[in-house]
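Q: Given only this backbone (300 positions), what sequence would you predict?
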């Protein structure tokens, strides 16, 4: 989720805490704190992709930062370290949960395990979740005596929404497995859609992408690709910093080579985001006839 949604989540969650202004700020700070890794954007998109949702989104950081927040507020506001710790832990945990629902992976077990984990239920920015938090924050501002009920209702709606997406995803997975003979199926949510899911089917060197539609009870194939990275230019491109960062992030990377007028373009694209229009999650390198790199780029 984006930082604005996480801030709104902290504000909404404050309705469940005792009516002390300090708890409001503890929750807002804790709900935003995991995204402190946004500072890596200062060093370029490659650094951001490599480190975002990394160590600050891990379980060890959750304990460290909640202790830090509780300690800081204890120094500023006095007694209440344990209550600050509990409230801070709640805000931090909600942030990690919301990120885990995304397609975009989270290294939740870092630093013990650097693999990316994802429930793959919501898009990076989900308007239904954001609108629910906005409505709750506004209502809590003007209906303070009912802040607990409003906050609890918003929480129930969010969990209900995520749960319903899980049910639809499971139905799409079961339907797709009846249509194709494969054990390696990945499903990604389409923006603002419950019944259609983007799929990537990977079997050895063959990768297929497409969409499964629960409403029409049909599958629509988009690409049927043969994966190979044995081309010398593809192997050479792996030494490029943009490609290296891309491969560190990508779940289903696919390379293509295009040659014209003595120039060669090596393009890596992330198939799990193949449903997005335009150029997104694509790393490109251009070489001259002698294999010298001319330029490279990353489209985020």
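A: Predicted residues:
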């Amino acid at each position: 989720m984006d930082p604005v949604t996480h801030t709104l989540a902290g504000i909404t969650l404050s309705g469940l805490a005792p009516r002390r202004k300090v708890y409001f700020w503890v929750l807002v700070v804790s709900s935003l704190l995991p995204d402190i890794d946004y500072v890596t954007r200062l060093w370029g998109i490659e650094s951001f992709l490599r480190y975002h949702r990394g160590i600050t989104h891990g379980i060890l950081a959750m304990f460290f930062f909640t202790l830090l927040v509780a300690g800081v507020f204890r120094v500023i506001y006095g007694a209440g370290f344990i209550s600050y710790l509990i409230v801070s832990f709640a805000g931090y945990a909600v942030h990690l949960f919301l990120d885990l629902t995304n397609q975009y992976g989270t290294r939740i077990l870092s630093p013990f395990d650097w693999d990316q984990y994802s429930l793959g239920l919501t898009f990076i920015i989900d308007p239904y979740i954001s609108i629910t938090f906005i409505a709750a924050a506004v209502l809590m501002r003007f209906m303070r005596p009912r802040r607990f009920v409003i906050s609890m209702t918003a929480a129930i709606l969010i969990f209900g929404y995520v749960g319903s997406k899980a049910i639809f995803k499971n139905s799409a997975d079961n339907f797709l497995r009846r249509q194709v003979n494969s054990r390696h199926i990945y499903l990604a949510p389409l923006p603002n859609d419950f019944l259609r899911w983007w799929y990537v089917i990977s079997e050895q060197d063959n990768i297929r992408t497409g969409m499964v539609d629960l409403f029409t009870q049909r599958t629509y194939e988009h690409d049927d690709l043969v994966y190979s990275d044995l081309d010398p230019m593809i192997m050479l491109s792996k030494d490029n910093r943009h490609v290296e960062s891309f491969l560190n992030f990508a779940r289903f990377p696919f390379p293509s080579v295009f040659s014209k007028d003595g120039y060669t373009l090596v393009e890596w694209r992330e198939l799990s985001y193949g449903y997005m229009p335009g150029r997104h999650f694509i790393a490109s390198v251009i070489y001259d006839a002698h294999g010298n790199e001319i330029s490279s780029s990353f489209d985020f």
